[in-house]
Amino acid sequence: MPREITAFSNPLIKRVRLLRDKKHRRDEGLFxxxxxxxxxxxxxxxxxxxxxxxxxxxxxHPLVEALVEATEAAGGEAIETNADIxxxxxxxxxxxxxxxxYPEFETKLIDLDRASAPIWLVAERLRDPGNLGxxxxxxDAIGAGGLILVDECVDPFSVEAVRASMGALFTVxxxxxxxxxFATWLRSGPGQLVGLSLDTEVDYQAADYATPTFxxxxxxAQGMPDYMAAACDLLVKxxxxxxxxSLNAAVATAVxxxxxxxxxxxx
Length: 267
What we know:
By secondary structure, this protein is of the alpha/beta class. 36% of the residues lie in helices and 19% in strands. It has two domains: 3-103, CATH 3.30.1330.30; 109-266, SPOUT methyltransferase, trefoil knot domain (Alpha/beta knot, 3-Layer(aba) Sandwich). The strands form two sheets. Strands 8-7-6-10-9-11 form a six-stranded parallel β-sheet. Strands 1-4-3-5-2 form a five-stranded mixed β-sheet.
């Protein structure tokens, strides 16, 4: 039976609010996700929150009822509250009907099975949480084996990244590794490393992609370093016909990913 919390001074409310800060997420090993669609995606992927906050007037919604039942059955706690508390927790003026507190999870690089999917996404020093979330959504859409974050990237468990992923954080494995560790792992088995670059004459639609393909997207502002570009099996570029010299990192990743997918479908 859910308990009710409506006071901002409640210790649990104060504790959960702090999870919007990276240091507190790291200390607690917990992160926030909000919105009925995202939490339902998580439930369907087998991920359930330790704490589930829901607005009292949404408690009869069948998806909220399913979340409450599943959370309590798994040993978590469902808490009825109001829109003001949900706004405080999520940081949004118009919060969703539910906010969940989840234990952080991550896949070790060594545990990834490269044979499980023909396309993998790799991002190095990604800085924008919206880009990270969008790349995860692309990964889910194309059936990517996972997203590998190289070197110091933005936290995939930040509220903004989780929100931008629209639930894909729960369906696409995420691994983090320094470049040297990733490069060693990559060369320990089959895999073509394809870098997005402006310093090549190879058009992205003219190239032949091997399976599995690892698509490497560089830092939003600087692109990938020269030594990473030199380590790629193939560098390709997306033509830019206007005045802009490059696409947004997440958009470029999506364009490339679908080109690789379409080649594989035709084959």
